[in-house]
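Hi R.,

Here are the chain sequences for the assembly we discussed:
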Amino acid sequence: MKNFEYYTPTKVVFGKGTENEVGKLILQETKDACVLVHYGSGSVKRTGLLDRICKSLDDAGIKYVTLGGVVPNPRLSKVYEGIELCKKEGINFILAVGGGSVIDSSKAIGYGVANEGDVWDFYDYKRVPEACLPIATVLTIAAAGSEMSDSSVITKEEGWIKRGVSADCSRCRFAIMNPELTMTLPDYQTSSGEVDIIMHTLERYLGQGKNMNITDEISEGLIRTVIKNAKILVKDPSNYDARAEIMWAGSLSHNGLTGCGVESMDWASHQLEHELGGMFDVAHGAGLAAVWPTWARYVVDANPARFAQLADKVFGISDKGSDMANALAGIDAMEQVFRDINMPVTLTELGLKDLTDEQIDELAEKCSFGQTRTIGGVKALNKADMINIYTKAR
Amino acid sequence: MKNFEYYTPTKVVFGKGTENEVGKLILQETKDACVLVHYGSGSVKRTGLLDRICKSLDDAGIKYVTLGGVVPNPRLSKVYEGIELCKKEGINFILAVGGGSVIDSSKAIGYGVANEGDVWDFYDYKRVPEACLPIATVLTIAAAGSEMSDSSVITKEEGWIKRGVSADCSRCRFAIMNPELTMTLPDYQTSSGEVDIIMHTLERYLGQGKNMNITDEISEGLIRTVIKNAKILVKDPSNYDARAEIMWAGSLSHNGLTGCGVESMDWASHQLEHELGGMFDVAHGAGLAAVWPTWARYVVDANPARFAQLADKVFGISDKGSDMANALAGIDAMEQVFRDINMPVTLTELGLKDLTDEQIDELAEKCSFGQTRTIGGVKALNKADMINIYTKAR
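And here is the predicted structure of the full complex:
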């Protein structure tokens, strides 16, 4: 087992009605909180959630201002707007009401307020953030895992560049997770989140060389759980327990637990998707589903035993005669899961049927940082590999 | 899934050589630390670990005093000694170098310094601790899980009463875990720790009524991991990876993860053992192994389906014709695991072959708090049940 650090200070408050505790929880963190309530497209207004949260803050005597308008693949311009608002209003605490996009936007605003200079520097890997305003969340989407992770992904409109930064100081102080709040999501968003959750685990799992025990057991159990309950939600979207299982799996998938002690990870699917999200604004999980099967078949020969273990432990496939045959059958099975939950498994199905060779070249050029980096732990992929994968995934 | 809270702020620094980071980690927590280095029987001196830690503190310019002498089933008198020393020396940080006993003693000292009045009040359930000195640990035994848990168990010599208290404020700021440090343990202590780890998971698992997914998957995977690697260590005590798997499982077993969303827990085995530990000073895990099979057979009829799930998922036993038959075969299999790792499965094997009926009555009287409480989630056990179990376990 490789040396590792594990740090998850976020207090999770999970279950029905927990959003009403938000005022009390903020007071436990800071007595003189002046809060930015940050949210997305307005669905939290329509459902009445924002009103309930504001009431909880009012009841606790907490001052706050609101800022909505965060979109999927959250934008740098909104981050700048939030930073300015926070400085003007003397904000010292950010409450993200929404999913990963809103939390990521909140973290970016938190960096921008707590550090000098242009916040994009952190996402452009020019500087490392030293501090962040305290962040907390009322989570409404099970997907990104940002509620317990140290990461934030922002898209800069100029050039449509999507980049992530990770720092412990941005980890949420608390995360309120009521699975009922995810029930108003469109089915497509629910499925997209489920793929993201599976991928956060798979990308830590598949880069591993040697057999692990506890981390493998947790990862395999987590993926089985998400697949089982995702299929339940296709037929019964209001199933509370299935929503709860997936919501909690989403946090555990990306809080570091599934990476403890692993030798290497492989974030190639995420990185390939980031360029799709940046340029075409696709739903993140759907983008992952459209890329992963092609990526997996492209790299499987570099570690067939590991893919075969996935096939065995998650799908019960171990009778195909060789590691490679089992591995390929496991990839087919995962692809079928995506189909079963109505996710795209090609770029055409993702809605990019007219993707040109020039656009693919641009995606790969960006993803390779102008041919200055390779990506992936199973197999290192350069720009030519990226072009191959995007092309095969079409 | 039942509502739950999950809070594990302890920063884990896991792997070879990590104990040398202790000075740096304390400085990250507090710039003007004045540290009590608390330890046990002197084995940390013999192995040179204490010297390495003191060097790390010296190198970081950190002031400290040392206090050894913590014994298994840590004593209240040592806690009082530590509180007095801390007050005299102006200690503001406690570093526990050892296993659960040393960490628990440190937490108790931390309560005693940070709160007015007699610290035993908290263990006697008369008051709730409001604060605790910051605690951290360099862990040398994989067992109690105290390095990430909120609990502390102390034995009061007057009447030999062993009691636990739980509070978030006592959770370790960081836990340094180098599996190599556990290699100097006697085999009996290694096995005893493994039983404790299994029990921390089982006692959360077996009280559950309905089938869970993610928490069950994690619990079952954790128990499989400990059993597999415990058997490896019987033959190969210096196997680093096996030690690492068990050490990390020990923390995950008791940091709350295996209890997330469960309907009810069952701590009866721990409570029955606490009285044995208090009166006869037996090794904690060995005491659990000596009690659990009898307890399990005594309560299995209250929830055979749950025990059958354990039999199936951990031992692959599902062919006995009924839930009850599978359940009983699963209990037999767990008992055999204890035997395989040279643990006692009766009180006689534990070394209490001359246990009298009067002593059993005293154990049950204490365990039932003078017949004012029942224990257990699978089946509520009163004093008469406790007498039955202790007697059958003889």
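The beta strands of chain A are 4-14, 34-39, 63-67, 93-98, 135-139, 151-156, 161-166, 174-177. The first helix of chain A runs from residue 22 to 29.

Let me know if anything looks off.

Best,
T.
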